[in-house]
Amino acid sequence: MTNQAFYLLWISIGLISSFFIAIVVMWVYSYFHMIAVTKIKGTLEEMLSSYFSLEKEEDQQDVARKLNAYMKHSILKNEMFMELIIQNGEPFIENNHEQLMKLYEIAGTKQFLIKRLLSKRAHVQALACRHLGDLRVHDAEMHIYKLINSKDNDVIYHVLLALAKLGDLQRLTHILNANSQNIHLSFRAVIEIIAIFKGPKDELFKATIESSDDYLKGILIKASADYQLEDLGEYYVRYLNSTNINLKIACIRALSELKNPAYEAYVIGMLEDAEWEVRAAAAKGLEKLGTSRSFTALGEKISDSEWWVRHNAANSLVLIPGGKEYANQIMKNKDRFAREAVMGVLALSS
Question: Are 347 and 318 in contact (CB under 8 A)?
Fold first, then answer.
């Protein structure tokens, strides 16, 4: 064996040995870390259970102080403690909110999270916002609000999420109104924020809709449609005159969800819009809102130049009580497209 081959053999043995030792070290570390985490979790669970089982406030405060001493200066213990509370679910947090707020104060959880909001790392700030919202740590809203000028979109999202969970109508609407053009969140993200808002949703919409841009208006109206808030009908009618297609479509759908005959004429009027997408939405909306007063207008739209308008008009006409008889009369129409639209819908509904 040459010297070169001998050296290569020893190098290979050394590399293999190093790799094996690294695996063993990692396994040993993971094993002992798991044992340590399990022990910490057990201790925290026992102390948390003890806190809620005690009746006297003095005894509870004593447990809270012990928790403070146990978790102090340990990020892992604080995070595990918060997760234990969150895992109990929203009903538990809401039903025991007063006791939990006292626990957060004495155990140092509130101070821990507020301090984390000041971190220079965006993901730490975002996580702190999430925990403050999930735990319903009130009186922390002002500290959360200070992060609204963050350049990190994930932080902005979690700021809004936390304020929504805390039901902070004033700060949430101020951000959506004043910073709407600087908020670059997806449609689903904004819908989520609105959905989890712990406050009167109609008040949130009223305080936000008029001052926001068309993009956010459309999202707000789409979100409000699911809650069938009758008080918002006047806003939906007003923005039917918008030049923004998506906003007009959102208003049509929201009016349709209200199922109030008073708004039928407004939706019928949108069947004459210059944009086919708006006409299609109006034809679809009359499926829920329409009455016999819609028959003539829908009958005319069955001859529309766009297939989706024809299809939606025919479908709505057939679904409105008494509409099938009217649709059968259209079968005698000389317009081939109108006949085909009605025939297709009747075939599917039979």
Answer: no
pLDDT in tens, 29-81: 676 667 777 888 989 999 999 999 998 989 999 999 999 999 988 999 999 99
Please give the C-alpha separations between residue 172 and each of 44, 47, 97, 144, 201, in angstroms, as whole numbers: 34, 36, 22, 11, 12
Please say whether the beta carbons of 247 and 218 come within 8 A.
Answer: yes
- Cα 125 → chain centroid: 19
pLDDT for 161 equals 94
Contact criterion met (CB below 8 Å) for 249 and 277: yes
Sign of the Cα pseudo-torsion (117, 120, 126, 128, in order) = negative
d(C-alpha 43, C-alpha 158), whole Å:
30
CA distance 7 to 10: 5
**What are the tokens at 211?**
């001052």
Q: How many CA atoms lie within 13 A of 167 on its CB side?
A: 10
Interatomic CA distance for residues 72 and 261, integer angstroms: 62
- CA dist 176 to 98, 163, 171, Å? 30, 12, 9
pTM beyond cutoff 0.85: no
